[in-house]
Amino acid sequence: MAISSPQAATFELEPWQDLNGTIVMVTGASSGIGWELCIDLAKSGCRIIASARRTDRLKILCDKINNLDVPENQSEATNHRVLAVAVEFDVSVDGPTIEESVRQAWEAFGRIDVLINNAGITGPIPNPLDLPDEDWDKVFKTNLRGSWLVSKYVCLQMRAFNQVGSVINISLVTGLQRTYSYGSLAYASSKSALNTMTKVMAMELGKHKIRVNSICPGLFKYEITAELVEKKFLTKIIAKGLPLRDFGTIDPTLTTLVRYLIHGSSHYVTGNIYIVDDGYSLLGVPLYSSL
């Protein structure tokens, strides 16, 4: 399939629209942001390693991607029709198990060019005095320790093969030290630590040509938040209190930024925390304070 003139013009102005042959591993791919990123990146020519605990959902996702009508000049489909594979992955387990899961993921296509650490949990939301220590540990095991260990073992492989790489951590505005919500002690702390991890890893992995960046989304409209964003009280708050007065959508708001951070045109970009939140975090107060 030939590229049309409008498509060619788009690729020239926005080269990150074409990521032909890039191998991307996405954790937490079974729903939400991870799911939509996998589909969008596959459309841009990427091979996808979709990882999560829910293998039934991963199978549906990979079947969907492998049946996409992707132009041959935007993928390597002529050589290998499989565009996505599923790898069962629990980022909260011990290091050796994560290392083995990374090895399986690496072998799926022979390398990993990009890692997107998207797996995360909110956990319970009691006040700090009622938060059980086991719930604190569970949140940190998934949101911070898991992201570090997956990054560690993927980046060790990148270094061993002298391979340029990109790590993208999906954080949240609660980790920005600008705005917080009641009941978010463990969650906000883990995301703040994830952003710090991003900066330190960027500093130390740069010599290996591995870039590390973080994205902090605000409130987006997608399957997990579908019912929430329809509630009248919330739409009223958005209309009154946020600078752009609208909900974001993962595509194109997040997908475009992720594509850019994958593409070679961002080769000089590392250690950054990207805020994509309609200006919500500028206000410095929880959403419901606008009521």
What features would you describe in this structure?
Pfam families: adh_short. InterPro entries: NAD(P)-bd_dom_sf, SDR_fam. Belongs to the short-chain dehydrogenases/reductases (SDR) family. This protein has 291 residues and is α/β, with parallel strands linked by helices. The chain has one domain: Rossmann fold (3-Layer(aba) Sandwich), CATH 3.40.50.720. It is built from 8 helices and 9 strands. The strands form 2 sheets. It has a 7-stranded parallel beta sheet with strand order 3-2-1-4-5-6-9, sandwiched between helices. A two-stranded parallel sheet has the order 7-8. Strand 2, helix 3 and strand 3 form a beta-alpha-beta unit. Helix 2 packs across helix 8, helix 4 crosses helix 5 and helix 5 packs parallel to helix 6. It is globular and about 45 Å long. The termini are far apart. The relative contact order is 0.13. About 2% of the residues have low confidence.
